[in-house]
Design a protein that fits this description.
Elements (H helix, E strand, L loop, with lengths): L42 E2 L2 E2 L10 H13 L3 H8 L2 H11 L4 H17 L12 H30 L1 H13 L1 E4 L4 E4 L8 E6 L2 E4 L18 H5 L2
Antiparallel strand pairs: 1-2, 3-4, 4-5, 5-6
Helix pairs in contact: 1-2, 1-6, 2-5, 4-5
């Protein structure tokens, strides 16, 4: 779909959201992965859930928790617990393959170290081939997770106007129910909307984006410099 206005210089506009980092093809209207079961005591990728500090009982609370986590530089918590877990897991399923060789080399070295230092048998790495493959996959996913956390951090630090857009939506935006969850918008945030979906008692930020109608012909789009001066 091409919404570019003739002669206006405007093209499709998307909210400059960290969630778009996870999948370049996650567009509004594209079927999303089914949500996994989410337990209240989940620990994902070594990060323990903290609903006292980062509540998720409403979409607004989830967005506030994201901003709090950014302020505290807890980017790993954002990826592990605040973004849509189905999308994060799918991203790691895709990316961990690139780390399999590295993970196996690391584990082989650890195995040699344990064998040479007389580790008790119960603390040695598995010898069963299937258990070994599973251990390598888990280590590779840990590497993919750290890569994703770093990418999210770099994206947010490079685009401060993203956080200003999130703050505007939080403090003065409209949160409207949709067929699949909640859509949050603000009249001054022209790049798009944020989407949330509920899993159990918690709300998560979805990996979705929408293309907005083009502004009237002759309108001047805001440059990244203009946004940074808001």
């Amino acid at each position: 779909m091409n919404c570019k206005a003739e002669g206006s210089g405007w093209g499709p506009r998307f909210i400059p959201s960290l969630v778009l980092l996870l999948s370049a093809t996650a567009l509004t209207g594209v079927a999303q992965p089914p949500p996994p079961a989410v337990q209240g005591d989940d620990q994902r990728y070594g990060i323990r859930l903290n609903l006292r500090l980062y509540p998720q009982d409403t979409p607004k609370a989830a967005l506030q928790s994201l901003l709090t986590a950014v302020e505290k530089k807890q980017y790993a918590y954002i990826v592990a617990h605040l973004l849509d877990p189905a999308t994060v897991d799918a991203r790691l399923d895709e990316r961990h393959i690139l780390f399999l060789d590295r993970a196996e080399k690391e584990l082989r070295q650890e195995q040699l170290h344990r064998d040479s230092t007389g580790f008790p048998a119960q603390r040695r790495l598995p010898s069963d081939p299937e258990d070994w493959k599973d251990l390598v996959r888990r280590r590779a996913r840990e590497h993919a997770f750290r890569e994703l956390v770093q990418q999210v951090q770099q994206r947010l630090e490079a685009e401060p106007h993203t956080l200003r857009s999130f703050t505007k939506i939080l403090t003065g935006g409209q949160f409207a129910e949709t067929a699949s969850g909640v859509q949050a918008t603000h009249p001054e945030v022209l790049e798009g909307a944020l989407y949330f979906r509920q899993m159990g008692t918690r709300w998560f930020i979805e990996n979705r984006r929408e293309e907005l109608p083009s502004p009237p012909a002759g309108s001047k789009p805001a440059s990244p410099k203009d946004k940074d001066q808001e």
